[in-house]
Batch of 2 targets.
Target 1
Amino acid sequence: MANNLNEHVKPVSDSKMSGIIKSELRKAFGTRASIAITLVTLLLTVGMSIWSAVLLEAGESWYIPFKQVASPLITISPLLIILLVCEEWDKGSALVTFTQVPKRSRIVIAKTVVAVLIFSASFAASLLLTLIVSVTTSSIHHFSLDWEASLSGFLTLALPLLVNMGLGLAMALFSRSTVISISLYFIIPPVTVMLSQINSISEYARWISLGHSSSIFVAGLTPQTYSQIVVSVIFWIVLPFVLGFVNICRRDIS
């Protein structure tokens, strides 16, 4: 996956947070792997946008196409954060980064800010494309849509992307290995879903199932599913993030 990250790391002499974030943002999109991921995501997003237009029917909500439009970004964009965190450790260039910015917590915070920026841009782009698809399709076929919008509706749309982005970041900080992080990122959600479907343990397994963050597209967000998502996020995202943060800040790099 491969590019030398050192080529994309510029000295941050004043160690200002804004400078560190800009440096991390350049690294997030500056390798061959990240460029390939971005291009593939864009192509898939365009394809899914066209497909969502075909599926849209009269009387449906304008943000129904969001599920198809955003699916590539929901699945693939967290890989950019995994690469941003892990490639430095895989290649042994973390020492370079921490030499430029000795206070390691700043680096972790900067990578987290980049994750938030990628999430925000992905969500905004998905909403814009969804709006374009809905307006264009309804105009071409001359049917009306439900244009009502609510805060809970936007939360329902944003949650799967937010959870996946958080999971990718947490697994990357926790393992600091690209292979392990990507494996965990793709394995944990389906495995927890399968466990939640086993009758003997389903009542308990649902509380650690990240699959609920995607199923709310269909089932909606209820008080129980909201509580289950909160618990599963704490277990799979918050705890690994904190452990990884502490370990990176304290780990000896030689």
Target 2
Amino acid sequence: MKFCVQSKKLKRFYVEFILFFKKILDFLEGYAILYYDAVYSAGKEYLSLNISKKAERTKEIIGVCLDCFVEKGLTVTTTTDLCNANNLQNGGIYYYFDTKEEMVLACAEEAISRIEQGAFSIAFEDIKDIANMMGHLGTLADELSPVMRFLVSVCVSQEYGNKVKPYLVQLAGRYPYYTKKIAEILGCTAAEVEPYVHLSILALNNYMIFNERALFLPQIEAAKKGLMQLAKRKG
């Protein structure tokens, strides 16, 4: 009888111990999940921050590389030049780009962006004063001419020419947007404005490439005259 009582107490002790031990395990499991979630979230945030910083730094490097290519030329500029310009160790540029081709194409895309924002977009600031806008285009063309020449050197190169075409097509796709905006401001149709917009863009591009005012001025004057006539009609 005494043995049975002790046996029951022992079983109860084991059961209570097991239940207590299970509670400890459940607690540790919950704590581990919380700890894992915290570590995972912190790691994810750290990785996201690093990716963001790398993206910002890459954008900065592209701008510096473009300036370097513009100054020295596409074929003359070396990766060492690009690393030095960006204060990177020799070969450090490949942390941001897998190949030189990727780097050149990124610079070509940035060149297109500079030309569009620097010449085409800024022109809208003067659109209500067409004579002033056309005069401003010449100044902008002078400033952006070296960038355009770099872009042309990429376009005509056997190594990069075909691969840069999508960026040029994308830029050409923006021309209807500019045509529409100018038509809205002048109060006329896009069809009426389109020849003068295309003539202006053609003149601007040719001048940035060849730097020949004798060709540029007559084209710009013809475009200016046509746009001013459309503007007078609105008034």
